[in-house]
Write a structure and sequence with these properties.
The chain has eleven helices and twelve strands. With 364 residues, it is of the alpha/beta class. The chain binds 5'-O-[(R)-(carboxyoxy)(hydroxy)phosphoryl]adenosine (KG4) and zinc ion.
């Protein structure tokens, strides 16, 4: 019988400082508390996450987040079975702040320390929320990530492909900026797209002519910039209807690329003949209704169940880190005080290294 484990999770790899308590055992898995302190306001003036500002803010907020998570969960250090912490990939100053905080608690309370790959945290979330069996196909699609993974086990992932430049969320954010819409750009562009005609601007569908599951989104942004400037030159400004049409055209292009590459990823995954095929998505971009509907359709056509964990667990949080720590610990693994913070840490060591590094840091 599996022993009940209660873990504290700590996350600080980008612009969210987070702590959570997760308990897993024969009676099921529950998130006793999940605290996320975002830093959006601190970076707003800079058009991206400033690593130094992020690291300092994490160092200031980590203890408070841990304290709040433990208070809310009603647990003391003596009730914990281990500490899980994001040890990479991410902005190195923030990851170091989290790792040092976790080491301090682990040493002080005499608890096991488990270093977690941030991407594994995202990729294992459907097991936390839906108790999924391996293998399943996962699409991580956010402001910092974009990759297809087959999850075979808690530490065993095959990367089928991913973006070679921007992540789609980043492209949505840049599009919003180019069109004078607020940040984060995704929701603003989606709302505007709902009013527009997706057929008016023929934006490219990058890399669809290339086999495999790699994607590219930076050229789309350039195409949008050109179309915007041409419209401004024609009209002496950007008419509202044109802005909506640009948003609709851009969103349709991202949707089509993600749908077609998902179809290909599903074909590769289904070749493994999984007993219960599942296509799971995580990340802020999965909140986009047009994209989500397209992905659901692709999954249904392939005969796979579609799963999207609740948004609060799809975006950066520490419950996924606590859970991934529990998964590793159950495999008999933990780390010593020599655990180090890693800026790059691909989940699939055999996949070719990724190019590019966006506003949210390395996408390893
Ligand atoms: O998962 P998330 O919080 O990860 C990162 O921290 O990267 O995702 C945030 C990203 C932002 O780039 C945001 O613009 C995008 O997800 N996003 C959306 C939508 N809601 C959020 N993109 C498209 N449509 C949306 N409705
Ligand atoms: Zn993330």
């Amino acid at each position: 019988m599996t022993k009940t484990l209660t873990f504290l999770g700590i996350e600080s790899s980008c612009d969210d400082t987070a702590a959570a308590i997760v308990r897993a055992g024969p009676a099921g898995t529950s998130i006793l508390a999940s605290v996320v302190a975002g830093q959006t306001a601190l970076h707003a003036a800079f058009g991206g996450v400033v690593p130094e500002i992020a690291a300092r803010a994490h160092a200031e907020k980590l203890d408070l987040c841990v304290e709040e998570a433990m208070d809310r969960a009603g647990v003391r250090f003596a009730d914990l079975d281990g500490i899980a912490v994001t040890a990479g990939p991410g902005l190195i100053g923030g990851v170091m702040a989290g790792v040092m905080c976790a080491k301090g608690i682990a040493a002080g309370a005499g608890l096991p320390l488990v270093g977690v790959n941030h991407l594994a945290g995202h990729a294992l979330t459907p097991r936390l929320t839906d108790d999924l069996a391996f293998p399943y196909l996962m699409l991580l699609v956010s402001g910092g990530h974009c990759q297809f993974l087959i999850a075979h086990g808690p530490e065993d992932f095959t990367r089928l492909g991913g973006t070679i430049d921007d992540a789609p969320g980043e492209a949505f954010d840049k599009t919003a900026k180019l069109l004078g819409l607020p940040q984060p750009g995704g929701p603003a562009v989606e709302a505007e797209a709902a009013l527009g005609d997706a057929a008016r601007f023929a934006f490219p569908r990058p890399l669809l002519d290339r086999a495999g599951c790699d994607m590219s989104f930076s050229g789309l942004k350039t195409a949008l910039l050109r179309a915007r400037d041409a419209a401004i030159a024609d009209h002496g400004g950007l008419p509202r209807a044109t802005r909506s049409d640009l948003c609709a055209g851009f969103q349709a292009a991202v949707r089509d690329v993600l749908a077609e590459k998902s179809r290909r990823a599903l074909t590769e995954y289904l070749a493994l003949a999984p007993a219960h095929p599942v296509f799971a998505v995580a990340g802020g971009v999965a909140a986009n209704q047009a994209i989500r509907t397209a992905l659901e359709t692709v999954a249904a056509r392939a005969g796979a169940r579609f799963i999207a964990p609740p948004l609060a667990l799809c975006t950066d949080n520490a419950a996924m880190i606590a859970w991934a720590g529990i998964e590793r610990f159950r495999l008999g693994q933990s780390d010593g005080m020599d655990l180090s913070a890693r800026p790059r840490w691909p989940l699939d060591q055999s996949a070719p290294a990724l190019l590019g590094s966006g506003k949210k840091g390395a996408k390893a």
